[in-house]
Structures are given as C-alpha cells and as structure tokens.
C-alpha cells in the first residue's frame, strides 16, 4: 500500500502547481512489440511485465508525476471479447502493483485507471448496470492495491462518465474524469464540452478534462470554454499526432501518400508520419497552462521524450533533462570552438 501521509497527494500537488501524467501505454507497448493492435487488451501486463515496468520507469525518468496503472481496456468486456475473463483480476492487480513499484522509485503518485466500456447505451438501464458493475470491480482492486487516486478516461458519453465518477467517489479517492471528443466537438449526447464539464464537477469530480482522440491543435480550442465553465482543476492529454480542423481526430486522419495501408487509413498502426515532435508538445503545454489547465499529459502516441519536453515546458527539471538536446557539440551544427571549423562549414551541404 502507498503511504499517503509521506508525500502530498494529487489535490495538494495541483494546488501547488501543474501535475504531469504520462499516458499512451497502449500505443507505446504495441510499438515495442508486446501488444496486439486492434483489441488493444494490455495482456503485456502478464506476458511481459518487464516491458511495462520499463515503460513506467522511462516515463518517471522523463518527468511524469503519476504512474498510471496499465489497466486501460483491462475491463471485463474487453477480456470477454478475447476469451480471457479468467485473468481479469490478476491482470488488474499486477498492473497496479507494477505502477506502484515504479512510483516507489521516485516521488510519483499511483493512479488506478478506468476507461470507456464499449457497451454503454444512452438511456438503457441494463447497460448502465453492467457498466457500473465493471467500474466497481476495477475500483475495488485499485483501492486494495493502494492507489492515490483514480482516472476515468476516453469516455465520450457524459452518462457513462458519471457512472465511473460514482464508482470512484464511493471509494473516497480523488477522481479525474476525462472525456474523449470525436469529430463532432460535443459529447455523444450532443452536450458541449463546457456543459459536460459543469455536470461532472457538480457530481463531485475533482478534475475534469479531455484526453485521447484529438491532437494538440484540435484539442486546444475546446479547452478555453471548459476552463471558463468549471472551478475545479482541468485536465488536457491530447494524442501525440498532428490533427487539425478538417481531420480533428487521429481516427480521421488520412494519408494520400501511402497506398499500402491495410485498412485504408493510418489509424491505428500507420500514424508515424503524423507524430508531433517534442517542441509541438512543449508549445501545447504552455498554451494549455496559460488557459488554466493544471493536469497535463500526452495520450496515445506519447513517448518519453514527449513527456520530458512537456515537463520542461512547465518549468520542471526531471532526471531525463540531464540528456536534453545540446547541439553545441554536434559535429556539423555545433557552436563550440572545439568543433572542427571545416565540418561546421560543410554543414550547409548536408
């Protein structure tokens, strides 16, 4: 169990300044070869726990204040689809313990993680009961394993988000509730982001915000009205891809330069050409912070260098900053007088 008296919790940290939370475990673990794209069930937690632990440590080194348990899509419905409900509890508890162990190597908090159920149907009481039961069991395991707070994320129905919030609040832990906004800049019930945020805050959310689906450029315009609508803390965790007005989500991106895409679209395994660089992530962090966002991170597509860049943009100096770019000693582009003048001269021909 974590000792919440030994260090400030989430709300205390947010009161003192911004909090950075690295996400994107699904995509990064898939890129490293330990997870199947499509179902995206985090079986790597059991099959290759060393890979998950390594990514936690990479994100910690890069400046994440939170070790988010890799339980995204580790819920009963996803495990049912792949015929592995029998490992549901083991997967969740192992993921929570891996996050806790990594957090113990620094000063990070541990967060449990709920996500979109993929079975919620607006107005259907039976689906609501099933979803709430799924959330309750995951919250129970997270509490048992001593998390500091719980994140519910990538949920596009406010009704479903409220079910997650109820489950979290019943545990007594702080709740971070993040909505995913698709092409339509509203929730699936056609509520504005501002109205959705107000409803979640009124229901007791400690942090409300947006994650996934949209990249920095298409998420940023939604943040100002959200920040104006609520008095609680606001979160923003975009995907690390160059979305825009015409293609606002990473699912909607198209790549006319590539004719070999197996599904005819870049999502989810051919998004490489759209990846944001670290400077774009830093720019987003500064702009979001200026609007009043205090819980920041990067979702799908995130790599440790994105998190380090975000942390540095917020005035942090994480351990990984020791290795931040310094081009002064580069063989061709360096400015140090120790770099060969002839090679610096040749740089224009590279």
How do the strands and helices of this protein lay out in sequence?
Elements: H1 10-16, E1 19-22, H2 25-31, H3 44-47, H4 49-62, E2 66-68, H5 76-81, H6 88-103, E3 109-115, H7 125-144, E4 149-155, H8 158-171, E5 175-179, H9 193-202, E6 207-211, H10 216-229, E7 233-237, H11 278-291, E8 295-298, H12 304-313, H13 341-346
Parallel strand pairs: 1-8, 2-3, 3-4, 4-5, 5-6, 6-7, 7-8
Helix pairs in contact: 4-6, 4-12, 7-8, 9-10, 10-11, 11-12
3D structure, described in words:
The protein has 350 residues and is of the alpha/beta class. The protein folds into two domains: 10-317, Homocysteine-binding-like domain (TIM Barrel, Alpha-Beta Barrel); 326-350, no CATH class. The protein is 41% helix and 11% strand. The protein has helices at residues 10-16, 25-31, 44-47, 49-62, 76-81, 88-103, 125-144, 158-171, 193-202, 216-229, 278-291, 304-313, 341-346; strands at residues 19-22, 66-68, 109-115, 149-155, 175-179, 207-211, 233-237, 295-298. Strands 1-8-7-6-5-4-3-2 form an eight-stranded parallel β-sheet. Strand 5 (175-179), helix 9 and strand 6 (207-211) form a beta-alpha-beta unit. Helix 4 packs parallel to helix 6, helix 7 (125-144) runs parallel beside helix 8 and helix 10 (216-229) packs parallel to helix 11. The radius of gyration is 20 Å and the shape is globular.
How would you summarize this macromolecular structure in one to three sentences?
The protein is of the alpha/beta class.
């Amino acid at each position: 169990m974590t000792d919440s008296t030994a260090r400030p919790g989430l709300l205390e940290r947010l009161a003192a300044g911004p909090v950075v939370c690295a996400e994107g475990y699904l995509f990064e673990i898939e890129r490293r070869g330990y997870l199947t794209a499509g179902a995206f069930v985090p079986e790597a937690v059991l099959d290759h726990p060393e890979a998950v632990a390594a990514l936690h440590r990479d994100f910690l080194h890069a400046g994440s204040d939170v070790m988010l348990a890799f339980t995204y899509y580790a819920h009963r419905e996803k495990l049912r689809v792949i015929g592995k409900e029998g490992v549901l509890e083991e997967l969740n508890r192992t993921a929570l313990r891996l996050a806790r162990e990594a957090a113990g190597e620094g000063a990070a908090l541990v967060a449990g993680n709920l996500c979109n159920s993929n079975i919620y149907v607006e107005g259907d009481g039976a689906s609501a009961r099933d979803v709430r039961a799924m959330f309750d069991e995951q919250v129970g395991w997270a509490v048992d394993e001593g998390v500091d707070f719980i994140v519910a994320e990538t949920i596009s129905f406010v009704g479903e988000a409220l079910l997650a919030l109820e489950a979290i609040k019943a545990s007594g832990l702080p709740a971070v509730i993040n909505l995913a906004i698709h092409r339509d800049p509203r929730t699936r019930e056609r509520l504005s982001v501002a109205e959705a945020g107000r409803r979640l805050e009124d229901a007791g959310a400690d942090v409300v915000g947006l994650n996934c689906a949209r990249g920095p450029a298409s998420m940023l315009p939604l943040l100002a009205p959200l920040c104006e609508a609520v008095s609680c803390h606001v979160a923003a965790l975009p995907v690390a891809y160059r979305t825009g007005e015409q293609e606002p989500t990473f699912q909607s991106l198209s790549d006319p330069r590539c004719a070999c895409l197996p599904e005819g679209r870049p999502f989810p395994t051919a998004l490489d050409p759209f990846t944001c660089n670290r400077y774009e992530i830093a720019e987003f962090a500064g702009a979001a912070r200026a609007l009043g966002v205090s819980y920041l991170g990067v979702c799908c597509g995130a790599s440790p260098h994105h998190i380090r860049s975000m942390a540095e943009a917020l005035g942090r100096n994480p351990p990984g900053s020791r290795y931040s770019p310094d081009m002064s000693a580069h063989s061709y582009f360096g400015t140090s007088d120790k770099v060969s003048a002839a090679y610096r001269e040749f740089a224009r021909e590279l």
